[in-house]
Amino acid sequence: MRFLETFHSAAFLDSLMSYASAFALGTLIGAERQYRQRTAGLRTNALVALGAAAFVDLAQRIAGDAEAVRVIAYVVSGIGFLGAGVIMKEGMNVRGLNTAATLWCSGAVGAAAGTDMAAEAALLTFFVIAGNTVLRPLVNAINRIPVRGATVEATYRVSLTSDAQHADRVRDLLVERLEGARYPVADVVLTPRGAQEVELVATLVSTAIDEAELDRATDALLAELGVRHATWEAQTQD
Fold this sequence. Notes:
The chain contains nine helices and six strands. By secondary structure, the chain is an alpha+beta fold.
C-alpha cells in the first residue's frame, strides 16, 4: 500500500503540530471577529489558517523549502480572492476591508504554522488580535477629532438653482466668484429643472478647501439676482 510507504510517524506528528497550531491560532483570531459579528467569523478564520498550513506543509514535505515558498505565494493570492468576497460597497461607503485584512493575516498565521514556525505564528496572532482590539479605542478617539476642510482631500461641488433666463449670467458669476476666491473651476454642468429653473453644479479643481471661505462665496452668490438656492458639498476621496 502506498500509505505504508509514505507514512512516517515523525513527519505525521510534525504535520499534526502544524495543523493544530494553525487551527488554534486561527480560532483565536476568528473568535474576536465572531464577537464583533463580522462577515468572516470564527470558522472562516480557523479554516483559512488551517488550509494555508496544510498547503504549505504538504509542499514542504514533498519538495522541500523552496517549493513551500512558492506555495506560500499562491496562498497569498488565493486569500486575496477570498477577501474580496467580504468587501461590500454601499453607496459611498466600503465595508469589510478590515475583515478581509484579517483573513489575509490568518493565512499568514497558517503559512507560518505550516513551516513549523509555531512561535512566530503565535506572535503574529497576538499582533493581529491587538490590531483589532487595542487599536479600536485609538481609532474612535481619532474619529472624534474635528477635521478642518483644508486638511481633507475631497471633491468639492458648488450647486446653484437659478431662473432659466438668468442661467448664463449666473454661470459666469459662479465661475468668477470661485476663481476670485482662488478655487479654479474644473467644470460647470447645467441641468434644467422644469421650464423655469436650471441647476448649475461647479466642480472645483482644489481638493482642500477653507469651508468658511466657501460659505462666504455661496452666500454672496445667493444674494445675486436670479439665484434661488446656493450650497456646496464635499465627497471625500478614498
